[in-house]
From TrEMBL:
Protein name per the record: Antibiotic biosynthesis monooxygenase
Pfam families: ABM (PF03992)
Keyword Oxidoreductase: yes
Domain of life: Bacteria
Annotated TM spans: none
PROSITE patterns recorded: ABM (PS51725)
Molecular-function annotations in GO: monooxygenase activity
Keyword terms, alphabetized: Monooxygenase, Oxidoreductase
All residue ranges annotated as the ABM domain in the record: 2-93
Keyword Oxidoreductase: yes
Amino acid sequence: MYIAMNRFKVRKGEEPAFEAVWRARESRLHEMTGFSAFHLLRGPEGEDHTLYVSHTIWDSHADFVAWTKSEQFRDAHKDAGKGPSLTIGHPVFEGFEAVELADVTA
């Protein structure tokens, strides 16, 4: 399993607009081999921003790399950077290979 994350510092007051952009987008992730899940997470507030992270889960690093080189990726990101900036700086990417997995069962 491979987890791809992007951290965003969203300007104070722009949280609703940032979340609306994510809800309205057509990601096309579901079209990709190896895609398992997507999450947008809101984190702690700083003095001038709220931290968010987008989090995708893939079967493998190779599946994630294929996404980044795909027509679907280009289409999903075609409007990135257009309009007023809702964030402070660029997103920070972090990628993780699973070392150990545990599931909770009822």
